[in-house]
Design brief:
The chain is 30% helix and 29% strand. By secondary structure, it is of the alpha/beta class. It has 2 domains: 52 residues, no CATH class; 179 residues, no CATH class. Strand 9 and strand 10 form a beta hairpin. The N and C termini lie far apart (35 Å). 36% of the residues are buried.
Length: 245
């Protein structure tokens, strides 16, 4: 049975407010459309993209998951910095990533739609478009409801479902490490992920009411074009439940 990628992006006054993706069968289109239409909060623009997928790679999830809570943002970010260094990111480059998310990575101010690509050796930005960034798309779980149920049983949130899928695809495409926290002013949790450490969930990584957030992908300059193609074009269906720690 052919599968399709259904993607939603919503914004308010030019600022990104919500995005989501599902890989679904044709019979699931009506129910999934209704789900994604209800997902954004206040918005004045929404774009829905439905695309038939010709090739899909199935991957087995094999990344450990851990979760840490701290008393302050400073402690959370200090821990994130240490995790990035343990993942092979030089400390000065890791600090640059933290600073970019803290100040707003868009050169014109505020958040970006996609992720920042940072050269892990020099700290140079490598995105072709410094305002748009690079988006990880065409990825989902084979049995999304089962994974969601398992995560909720273990005290994680529904947000973790999509974050895990994106983080796992990133590693499979060649991202060395990722730093992420939400641009939702009321969601304070973020994560560091890498092949060495897996998915490391960290709370808090920002203060309540802070609208800034996004993703930093620490990568090697060699092969950046192929990495971008993998993140944006390669369709991936993750076919097993995460092994939670």
């Amino acid at each position: 049975m052919p599968l399709l990628s259904l993607r939603m992006r919503a914004s308010l006054k030019g600022r990104h407010v919500s995005g989501a993706e599902r890989i679904i069968s044709e019979e699931d289109i009506p129910s999934t459309l209704c789900e994604l239409l209800r997902r954004p909060g206040e918005h004045d623009f929404m774009k829905l993209t439905l695309e038939r997928l010709e090739e899909i790679e199935k991957l087995e999830f094999n990344m450990p998951i851990s979760s840490y809570e701290f008393r302050s943002v400073e402690e959370g970010r200090d821990f994130a910095l240490k995790e990035l260094v343990l993942s092979g990111v030089p400390e000065d480059v890791a600090k640059k990533g933290l600073d970019l998310l803290s100040m707003g990575a868009n050169p014109k101010g505020g958040n970006m739609r996609g992720a920042v690509l940072l050269d892990v050796e020099t700290g140079d930005r490598l995105e072709p478009d410094l305002e748009r960034g690079v988006r990880t798309v065409r990825v989902d779980w084979k049995d999304r409801s089962a994974v969601k149920s398992e995560l909720l049983k273990r005290g994680f949130t529904e947000r973790t479902l999509d974050a895990l899928a994106i983080a796992f695809k990133n590693i499979c495409c060649g991202v060395l490490a990722e730093l992420c926290w939400s641009d939702d002013p009321n969601y304070l949790t973020g994560y560091v992920s890498s092949r060495e450490l897996g998915y490391v969930r960290i709370t808090p990584l920002k203060e309540r009411g802070d609208p800034l957030g996004g993703r930093i992908y620490f990568i090697r300059r060699e092969g950046v074009g192929e990495l971008i193609r993998c993140l944006e074009r390669r369709a991936v269906l993750i076919s097993s439940l995460p092994q939670l720690s």
